[in-house]
Design brief:
2,3-Dihydroxybiphenyl 1,2-Dioxygenase, domain 1; four-stranded mixed β-sheet; globular; 37% strand; 23% helix
């Protein structure tokens, strides 16, 4: 019996934005690179993680959209967010890192469109996540 080759390469979310230029600069300041950008879509990545920023905005959608970025050093990312003054410059919200019962230390950050990001690192025993 022949089985098809179902190996995957990548999965990316299409993240909504109200103002493409503002959101692009926000994500660049956050630490993402933008290998290509068009009027309607941009490819952003940091390390091995990536997503597509799309020129699409529905308040209910953006306000209920969440991204999770797993990093090696959440406190370094938090320090970077503070050093870049993202909350002041972009009028976004951020909550400092906390240890969560599900073995993640993370912080919350909204983007200019209202998308909620949880940026965190694994803590506790490796491989034991709720």
């Amino acid at each position: 019996m022949n089985t098809p080759d179902l190996r995957t390469v990548e999965i990316k979310a299409f993240v909504p934005t109200r103002d493409m230029a503002v959101s692009l600069q926000f994500y660049r300041d956050l630490g993402f690179e933008t290998p290509w950008v068009s009027d309607e879509l941009a490819y952003l990545h940091a390390g091995g993680c990536s997503f597509l920023l799309q020129k699409f905005f529905v308040a209910e959608h953006a306000g209920n959209f969440m991204m999770h970025l797993l990093v090696e050093d959440v406190d370094a990312w938090w320090s970077h967010v503070q050093a870049q003054r993202l909350t002041e410059r972009y009028g976004v919200r951020a909550q400092p890192p906390e240890d969560r019962p599900w073995q993640i230390r993370d912080f919350a950050l909204t983007d200019p469109a209202g998308v909620l990001w949880r940026i965190g690192q694994n803590i506790g025993e490796p491989g034991r996540h709720a």
